[in-house]
Write a structure and sequence with these properties.
By secondary structure, the chain is α+β, with helices and mostly antiparallel strands. It is about 30% helix and about 25% strand.
Length: about 160
């Protein structure tokens, strides 16, 4: 039976995906004390990237914002894989977003808003977080966006 967080996802027309398998030697998420740290999550859907390239060149900022939302969904799936239940999230502490950027693209914060807005819509006040949005030259598999999150669990 899905909890309140997954019910909210369904209300928003979203489904929690399966955990994206690691591309190398790491775990999708680990728990340390009351915190869960996710590895960087790419905008994978059904095992592949729908879009590749640099934001501001091959990928529009609006497309990238949607991809950041997908990254956040994948991050929530990774959190659930170790926490067991997304209703255990006491708060999202930190979001770090990486944007593979064309050399003149400076809209990284607006792109990562896709992840931040999703977390807020799904978790309410528990989704309010500190954040970094960083432009980079290239990401794994030529992904346009990568997002990692840190959450605090209640009842850990």
């Amino acid at each position: 039976m899905a909890g309140a967080v997954e019910a909210k996802l369904a209300e928003l027309g979203l489904t929690l995906p399966d955990v994206v398998p690691p591309l190398a030697s790491y775990q999708p998420a680990v728990q340390s004390g009351v915190y869960v740290y996710t590895s960087g999550q790419l905008p994978m859907v059904d095992g592949k990237l729908a879009v590749t390239g640099k934001v501001g060149a091959e990928v529009t900022p609006d497309e990238a914002k949607e991809l950041a939302k997908t990254c956040a969904l994948n991050a929530l799936a990774a959190v659930k894989s170790v926490a067991g239940d997304l209703d255990r999230i006491a708060r999202v502490v930190k979001v770090v977003g990486f944007v593979a950027s064309a050399s003149d693209f400076t809209g990284q914060p607006a792109v990562i808003n896709g992840a931040s807005e999703l977390l807020g819509a799904v978790l309410g006040d528990k989704g309010v977080h500190a954040r970094s949005a960083v432009g980079v030259a290239v990401l794994p598999l030529d992904a346009p966006v990568e997002v990692e999150i840190q959450v605090e669990l209640a009842g850990a």
